[in-house]
């Protein structure tokens, strides 16, 4: 049963790739979507291309106070600062959610700042591209993707279900639920570590002609190495301990494979490869 109905007003704060994709998906489904972002060109593009119904390059009080559901697509620190400055604008009953890539360091903080009649239920859309800006927004990036809802004991069952319903409306294929701590541990592995590996692959070799020699495997492994250094460095630092733990686990595994090669342990290598193949096969199941 759909909980969110099309009579509600949705506000997107932060109109980049993900915020713009949320707006595009929701407006296509018949929702009234407004947006606030600090770049007037982004607002103009979104209006011209009918991604939003109305938009502002400043904090328009009426847009905030009239919104029933607000999605924050901001960097974590900017998100917190925005709440500090403008939390008095939310009307009673407003539900806010986010797309932030780290949770423990931000969710409890935001929840503690809000008025008691405003609820923040965190979420993480596991979708994106190595391009940025509303001009690259595409609601199709959510199709087949995962969506993680991240509640705390301050969240009501109604808000949790509303957030899950938002994921369904956006088109995510799998919706799961994790605590902030569980989320950060998992994201340290499946997202942040993978970006560390991609960056390392691109920086550990000085050969300027790699592009002339590589095949699809290297291109696939390094697709995400084209990276937003401001966003990802902030995410790495805010999730420092879980990420360091995952880096150490990965280094240990690499050293184990290194030792197998050094000691001519062919059967050990084959066992590792068989395990890898069986685990990767789970991702290919329909």
Describe this structure in words.
The protein is α/β, with parallel strands linked by helices and 286 residues long. Helices cover 48% and strands 13% of the residues. The chain contains 11 helices and 9 strands. A 6-stranded parallel sheet has the order 3-2-1-4-5-6. A 3-stranded mixed sheet has the order 7-8-9, covered by helices on one side. Strand 2 (32-36), helix 2 (40-48) and strand 3 form a beta-alpha-beta unit. Helix 7 packs across helix 10. It is globular and about 70 Å long. It starts with 8 loop residues before the first strand and ends in a 5-residue tail after the last helix.
* Average predicted confidence as pLDDT: 95
Number of helices: 11
Helices and strands, in order, run as EHEHEHEHEHEEEHEHHHHH
Cα(first) to Cα(last) distance is 24 Å
Please tell me what the overall shape is.
globular
If strands are numbered along the chain, what order do they take across the biggest sheet? 3-2-1-4-5-6
What kind of sheet is the major sheet?
6 strands, parallel
Strand tally, please? 9
Low-confidence stretches: none
Strand content: 5-15%
Task: Supply database-style keywords.
single chain, 286 residues, alpha/beta, six-stranded parallel beta sheet, three-stranded mixed beta sheet, 11 helices, 9 strands, globular
Quick structural overview:
The chain has 286 residues and is an alpha/beta fold. Helix content is 48%, strand content 13%. Strand 2, helix 2 and strand 3 (54-56) form a beta-alpha-beta unit.
What topology does this entry show?
Blueprint: E1 9-13, H1 17-28, E2 32-36, H2 40-48, E3 54-56, H3 61-65, E4 69-72, H4 76-86, E5 95-98, H5 107-113, E6 119-120, E7 122-126, E8 146-150, H6 157-170, E9 174-177, H7 180-203, H8 216-221, H9 229-238, H10 240-262, H11 266-281
